[in-house]
Input
Amino acid sequence: MKNHGFVVSLILSISLFLHGCDGKIQADETQKSSSDEKLAGYPEENTIEGVYTYEDSFSGMTASINIYGDSWSGTVNLSGDIEFSNGTMKGKDLYEESGFVRVGYVSGKSLYTSLGGRTLTLKKEN
Output
């Protein structure tokens, strides 16, 4: 009888262990599938990387900011006068080149920054 309790306990332990491993295997397969999609060129849903644009037809001003990795670069065109700028990313925040002054942030598919004392909202291109 003593061995019977040990065998039942051992079988129960092995079953619980295998059940726990099954969840790990399924989670690994899900991660692998997600990684394979990224490698295959499918866009990542929640990435902030990409091009954000703004256009004011009244003033003729256009702005474009490209976020890639931990950097960003942008242009502002006001009646043919083009200015370039770039900087670093910290999470969803844009900082100027030195990394000390926050110049904008990303929320959803919008990028918010200021120019000439007014807030600009740039929209992410698809």
